[in-house]
Each structure stands twice: as C-alpha cells, then as structure tokens.
Write a structure and sequence with these properties.
single chain, 312 residues, alpha/beta, seven-stranded mixed sheet, five-stranded parallel sheet, 7 helices, 24% helix, 29% strand, binds NADPH dihydro-nicotinamide-adenine-dinucleotide phosphate, FAD
Length: 312
C-alpha cells in the first residue's frame, strides 16, 4: 500500500477542517486535508448564509466553503478528494487509511468530520430540501418571516428552534410523536409560554406537501388514526444530529451520543496529538462560525504539540 508521512492530517472538509488548514499552513505544518464524502460539509445543503460575519449581504453556503477552501489552498494546504476510511491511533505517529488504498502516517490528526442532521427519510422531504425543508432554524428561519412553519421533534433543539422561529414567524407548529416532550423543563416552559406555538401531540409526518414554489403543507397521522393536513411554508427537522465519529471512537473518548470529548476550551482529545474540531465535537452550537473557530483552535493546538515534540 502506498505510504506517506505528514505532520498534520486533517479529516473533513467543512468550515472546521478548512479553517484548521488555513492556520496550520500559515504555521508551517504543511497540512494535508481529506475532504470526505461531502466536500464543504453541511453548508453545501443550505442556500443563503446571512449570519457568517464578514458578508454584509450574506453569502451562498457553497460559495462560502469554496472560498474557505481556496484560501487554504492559496496558503499552501494540500486539499485532496478522498475519505479517511481507517484509523489506528494506538501509537504515534498515527496510521490512517484513505479510501482503503493509501496509508498516511501522521504526527498529528485533526478530526473535523462533522455531523449530519437526522431526517425522517420521506421521499417528499428529500424532494423539498432547500425549498422549505430545513434542519437548521438559525440558518433558514429568517426566510419565513411572518409565515407559518412546522418543527418536528420534542427535544431541547426542537424547543429552542420553535421558540426562535416563533419570534420571526406568525405561527409555529411543533410535531411531536409522543404525548410528552423530551426537552428539559426550562425549555418546555419556554414553549408553553410562547403563544404562537401550537404543539400537535402524538403525530407523525406522513408526507411533506408542496408545489413548484416549495413546501405548502404537511400531512400528519395522529396515534388515534386520524389523518389531517396543516398548511405550512417551512418544515424544520429537529430530531437530532449524528456525529461522524465512528471511525475514531475506539481511540478517542466520546459522549453517549458519539460526540468527541475535548479537554476544556481546547481541541485536545484524550489521545495526545489528536484534536477534534467542529460539529463532531459540538452538540450545542453547530454554527459555521463556531466550527471555524474550533478549527483554528485545533491547528494552534497541533502546532503547540508539534513544537513540544521537536517535530517542527
Ligand atoms: P434529542 O435526541 O434530545 O431529541 C430528539 C427529539 O426528536 C426527541 O423528541 C425525539 O422523540 C424526536 N425524534 C427522534 N426521531 C424522530 C422521528 N423519526 N420522528 C419524530 N420525532 C423524532 O436531540 P436534540 O437535538 O434535541 O438534543 C441533543 C442534545 O443536545 C441533548 O442532550 C439536548 O439536551 C442537548 N441540547 C441542549 C440545549 C440547551 O441546553 N440549550 C439546546 C439543544 C440541545 P422521542 O422523545 O419520542 O424520542
């Protein structure tokens, strides 16, 4: 198998990975970044990004990550198509496999493999992604000003997104599959105290309805067997995220949901020389800007580590 030795390997091409590559390049770590299966990450599934600082009039999600990538390349990062498919972090230097056919021997590893929002798996949901179906209220809520939307889920994220959307939209339905919310009592209180949120208990989504203009409604099935439709302009999923940490969780500590645990405000994992950045280690904020910031931390932490080992 082809073998290559690098000082800093970055797994994942999203805001966290690209930012790590920008900083690591400028620090002389000659980083190699493999973009993974979704180059650009979750931002590529959104349209307009209005909350990333520096872009007065907003920027298209794809354009934003493409610009980050171009900046990293200009500064000398080696950004490659391919997915880290195997990892042996039992000793340093670490041994990583790419696409099952190339071995990278890495002095440091930055895991920036992200997370994916969970979807219900309905074909109609897939059809209207980006046309009314979204998994990020903070990203897309603004486009539904004074409109009616639905949020699926009963956890803290769903409650938080519903109350956020309620401040923008005229009406928010919460579609909850049981007769209780999973969310903390504080979040439940916030929902109950928000007059324009209506909870539809014991309901599951049968179909997202729409036309050429996008989502127009949802068909729901209640546990008592009643099937009914509600009219909505936006359909937000808040049924959890799935961090892409499986490959590394044999070596690095993760929480019960699979998010990689880092040491305090640093990006350090329990394995010396392995750092985690972005949504793979962040169940809470999940914003492009927070992911980018943690990518910066990871590169600085990797640099410090390499200096401590006399490797740069
Ligand atoms: P959770 O796993 O806590 O909740 C997921 C919700 O979605 C549950 O209500 C679940 O229903 C529902 N759900 C799951 N699958 C489906 C499905 N197929 N159809 C319909 N409903 C479904 O995820 P969250 O993203 O809300 O939270 C993740 C973690 O982050 C939690 O630990 C949470 O406490 C934390 N968090 C904390 C915040 C805060 O403190 N401010 C803010 C946001 C998140 P059911 O209950 O029936 O399983």
């Amino acid at each position: 198998m082809e073998k290559e030795h690098v000082k800093c390997l970055i797994a994942g091409g999203g805001p966290a990975g690209y930012t790590a590559a920008i900083y690591a390049s400028r620090s002389g770590l000659a980083p190699v970044l493999y973009e993974g299966m979704q180059p650009g990450g979750q931002l590529t599934t959104t349209t307009e990004v209005e909350n990333y600082p520096g872009f007065e009039n907003g920027i298209d999600g794809r354009a934003l990550v493409d610009t980050m990538k171009a900046q990293a390349v200009r500064l000398g990062a080696d950004i490659r198509t391919g997915t880290v498919s195997g990892a042996d972090l039992s000793s340093r230097p670490f041994r990583l496999t790419v696409d099952g056919e190339k071995e990278i021997v890495a002095e440091t590893l930055v895991i920036a493999t992200g997370a994916n929002a969970k979807y219900l798996g309905l074909p109609s949901e897939e059809k209207f992604k980006g046309m009314g179906v979204s998994a990020c209220a903070t990203c897309d809520g603004f486009f539904y000003r004074k409109k009616t939307v639905a949020v699926v889920g009963g956890g803290d994220t769903a409650c938080e997104e519903a109350t956020y959307l309620a401040s923008i939209c005229s009406k928010v339905y919460m579609i909850v599959r049981r007769d209780v919310l999973r969310a903390s009592s504080a979040m439940q209180d916030r929902v109950r105290n928000t007059p324009n949120i209506e909870i539809l208990w014991n309901c599951s989504t049968q179909e997202v309805l729409g036309d050429a203009s996008g989502v127009t409604g949802v068909r729901l099935l209640r546990k008592d067997g009643e099937v009914f439709e509600i009219g909505v302009d936006g359909f937000f999923l808040a049924i959890g995220h799935h961090p892409n940490s499986e490959l590394f969780s044999k070596w690095v500590n993760v929480n019960p949901d699979g998010y990689i645990l880092t040491d305090g405000v640093s990006s350090r994992t329990n394995v010396e020389g392995v750092f985690a950045a972005g949504d793979v280690q962040d169940p809470y904020y999940r914003q492009a800007i927070t992911a980018a910031a943690s990518g910066c931390r990871a590169a600085l932490d990797a640099e410090k580590f390499l200096i401590s080992q006399n490797l740069i």
